[in-house]
Specification:
Elements: E1 2-7, E2 10-15, H1 27-35, E3 44-48, H2 55-67, E4 72-76, E5 90-93, H3 96-109, H4 114-117, H5 123-131, E6 141-144
Parallel strand pairs: 3-4
Antiparallel strand pairs: 1-2, 5-6
């Protein structure tokens, strides 16, 4: 789990390591990490889809919604072994440079899924253009699930 904040010119981050695939079995320690976040009030939160087939991702999403009740939360998915890509309902157009940065970040951040993601330009390279681009009338888009929002 990684926590990052940006306040004016100040940036900080905090990271805790948990074993991949074991987060549901480290429940108390993991839940306590989320409890520490309750004093914060971010403007926007990105989390996994609550219907994600990966047990770690699903629990992170559930605890995100449990912890933050008055913030804008966007759920995302990445292509992975589980093959559980949903139907996003919020799209953000991406230019080629930002899209390439997104691919590099996903390849780095989701180390355990790297084999399933194959390599840049394969699964990830065809993911956004084929799936989301047509829905937002752009060649490249990022897709998110927005279950609820108050604007």
């Amino acid at each position: 789990m990684e926590r990052s904040t940006k306040l004016g010119e100040t940036q900080g981050s905090y990271r805790e390591e948990f074993r991949d695939g074991f987060i549901p079995f480290e429940g108390t320690q993991f839940k306590n990490s989320f409890e520490e976040l309750k004093g914060t009030s971010p403007d926007l939160i990105f989390t996994h889809n609550r219907k994600d087939a990966h047990q770690d991702h699903r629990l992170i999403a559930e605890l995100t919604w449990n912890t933050f009740r008055n913030q804008l939360i966007l759920e995302y998915e990445i292509p992975k072994y589980d093959g559980d890509l949903g139907q996003p309902n919020l799209f953000v157009p991406l230019d080629q440079q930002l899209y390439q940065e997104k691919i590099r970040y996903i390849m780095h951040a989701f180390d355990t899924q790297r084999k399933a993601l194959v390599r840049e330009g394969d699964v990830l390279g065809s993911y956004a253009p084929a799936g989301h681009g047509a829905r937002c009338f752009q060649r490249l888009c990022g897709g998110f699930l927005l279950p609820q929002a108050v604007l």
